[in-house]
Design goal:
The protein is built from nine helices and no strands.
């Protein structure tokens, strides 16, 4: 097997594994929220991220179905467009899902106001990136006939993505930390919740790696790191409902009744209500 074909095969296998895990986790999360009758906006954004992940998994196989050193057809070109578009949609939808969780869990204070503005900024950044990528790739058609197939965006776009990823990651850690500071919760639960939201920093690190290959125009590694960044972000947005479910199950195993569990004002979660926060935040 040649080096190029081996790289493509590795790309297919790696992305299929992480995408399948992400699809299973997100599907379970959405199913669980439906049967619990606590569907909200964070679940809508998670559903959008799920659709984007499915499209990316299918597009990878279409994109890599044609040998990288042969003439490309319409299928790989369309798949390349779908990968680029749905990467941005999946990544920022998962971040909006986490931000909506923060909005729902916070009391009507400045924290919620900041979260609303951050949500608007997240949406604006996602739209701006989509417009920028779409305009550039549509204006320069020469990349569609070059092998390996890839729309080489300006390095400024990669730098802008890293900056946006860093700022969004910090917002998704700082805001929950501020809520936890005002919530009356045991220390172990504070650590657990903050750890969940801190997972968004992993996507920030991956975005830096992705930007390196983005600038170097390494097609295989650029796609791989982009898809890893998106799927990790989607998994992180799924962790809070999943951790909540596991916590409830473990509590029930320790002979805690569901009534006592609910009355105890369980930790920050999209499923159980938060305890009262200080109104002077």
């Amino acid at each position: 097997m040649s080096g190029a074909h081996s790289s493509v095969w590795g790309l297919q296998v790696s992305i299929t594994i992480v995408h399948t895990c992400t699809i299973v986790l997100t599907s379970w999360r959405l199913w669980y929220k439906i049967i619990q009758q606590c569907w909200w906006w964070e679940d809508v954004w998670a559903a959008i991220a799920l659709v984007a992940t499915i499209i990316c998994e299918v597009s990878i196989w279409i994109f890599s179905g044609t040998p990288m050193d042969s003439k490309t057809g319409d299928g790989p070109v369309i798949a390349s467009w779908l990968l680029m578009i749905n990467f941005t949609i999946g990544l920022w939808s998962s971040r909006l899902s986490m931000l909506c969780s923060i909005i729902r869990l916070s009391s009507p204070t400045r924290i919620r106001t900041v979260a609303y503005w951050a949500a608007a900024a997240f949406g604006a950044v996602a739209i701006a990136l989509l417009v920028c990528k779409g305009w550039f790739c549509a204006s320069h058609h020469d990349w569609e006939g070059i092998t390996p197939l890839s729309c080489s965006l300006p390095s400024s776009v990669g730098i802008a993505q890293v900056i946006a990823d860093f700022l969004s990651g910090m917002i998704l850690v700082i805001l929950p930390a501020q809520i936890l500071h005002r919530a009356k919760l045991p220390r172990n639960q504070r650590i657990m919740i903050l750890s969940v939201f801190s997972g968004s920093l992993i996507t920030t690190l991956l975005s830096i790696v992705h930007a390196v290959f983005f600038i170097q125009a390494d097609v295989i590694l650029k796609i791989l790191t982009a898809q890893l960044e998106m799927t990790i972000s989607v998994i992180v947005c799924d962790l809070l409902p999943i951790v909540t479910c596991l916590y409830k199950f473990l509590r029930s195993k320790d002979d805690f009744s569901h009534r006592r569990y609910s009355a105890g004002s369980m930790f920050l979660t999209t499923i159980v209500d938060m305890p009262p926060l200080d109104s002077h935040a």
